[in-house]
Amino acid sequence: MIIILNPGATEENLDTLVANIEERGYGVHISRGVEKTIVGCIGAPDEDKAIVVEQLSSFPFVERVVPILKPYKIVGREFHPDKSVIKVGNVEIGGQRVVVIAGPCTVENEEQMIETAKAVKAAGATILRGGAFKPSTSPYSFHGLGEDALKILQSAKELTGLPIVTEVMDPRDVELVSKYADILQIGTRNMTNFSLLNTVGEIRKPVMLKRGMSATIEEWLQAAEYIAHRGNYEIILCERGIRTFETFTRNTFDVSAIPAVLSLSHLPIIADPSHGTGKWNLVTPVALAAIAAGADGLMVEVHPHPEQALKDGAQSLRPEAFAAMMAQVAAVAQAVGRSA
Ligand code: PEP
Ligand code: MN
To answer: Are 300 and 340 spatial neighbours (Cβ–Cβ below 8 Å)?
Structure first.
């Protein structure tokens, strides 16, 4: 349930309420909005909810108590009506400006990564991506360079000033990846890896949670709830396409998920048109559709020589195509009242 405090409620009132909830053995999450403070009370058993609502409503500094019926609570709009903005260095994700994350599917070597980093920065990208631990459908595929790749990403960051996002697949690697990454990515195949979600919930760094390839929007938001439930509220959602009967594209990019998620959750959402389509020539049109639909940003795969890429060359933009996309993104962002 959520407890909405009167506009005049004091810090002392808040402490009284928090102590009361904690004495009952329930979890407390505080959301300070521009106008109102909202306290989430998590964990009351169904049979006790009615009486708890009544008791908490009796505090004079409480405006109202509302039970939350949705299966996700902390990440839902009811608990936190204002949009969340996640700060990564100087970059804000979820604010007025659309954020573009770009880089290769996977870090192959220092030269490839540095060349890509310079090119995407020159074209206006604000965050750099690159896989170090790669999830692969086949055990025989390339699985990434591990820590060596993280070190290369660090050099690229030092050179360009761009923060880094990279995937973590195993709870045992979360500490290592956190040392290098500014944002930890949870890939589609791990959206329901609950021990991984719990582990990244314990750290205090932003997490980018990709939609499971066969996950519903509600399942995806519940996966985000796992992370938030452990105290990490810095979550960025990423729509990357879902499996349908269509095989022409690698996945079916669900553009409707963007406004749907924005109405249900306060978390920022970005779009990955690269994995969403699997074809480089479809990346820009889908990216533009995502921005038009309200996405807070994009994550796009860029490779200086896609014909030599170890992974996902077919969906990677060459630097020139990426720069052309950026100009179009800026125009669409402006058309929907944002900047790029
Ligand atoms: C990726 O972004 O590198 C990736 C593997 O994406 P997904 O988890 O969406 O397949
Ligand atoms: Mn990829």
So the answer is: no
**Looking at ligand 1, which residue's alpha carbon is closest to its atom 3?**
105
2-66 maps to which CATH number? 3.30.70.1140
- Of 101, 108, 177, 240, the one to substitute when testing ligand 1's pocket (max ligand atoms within 8 A of C-beta) is 240
Please give the CATH topology (third level) of the domain spanning 86-335.
TIM Barrel (3.20.20)
C-alpha 187 – ligand 1 centre gap (Å): 5
User: Where, residue-wise, is CATH 3.30.70.1140 in the chain?
Assistant: 2-66
What is the tens place of the pLDDT at every residue in 13-65?
999 999 999 999 999 999 988 888 999 999 899 899 999 999 999 999 999 99
Residues near ligand 1 (Cβ within 6 A): 105, 131, 135, 167, 187-188, 210, 240, 275
Task: Locate 11 and state its tokens.
Answer: 């810090």
Q: Whose CA is nearest to atom 6 of ligand 1?
A: 187
Q: pLDDT band at residue 318, thresholds of 50, 70 and 90?
A: very high
Question: Contact, 300 vs 240, CB < 8 A?
Answer: no
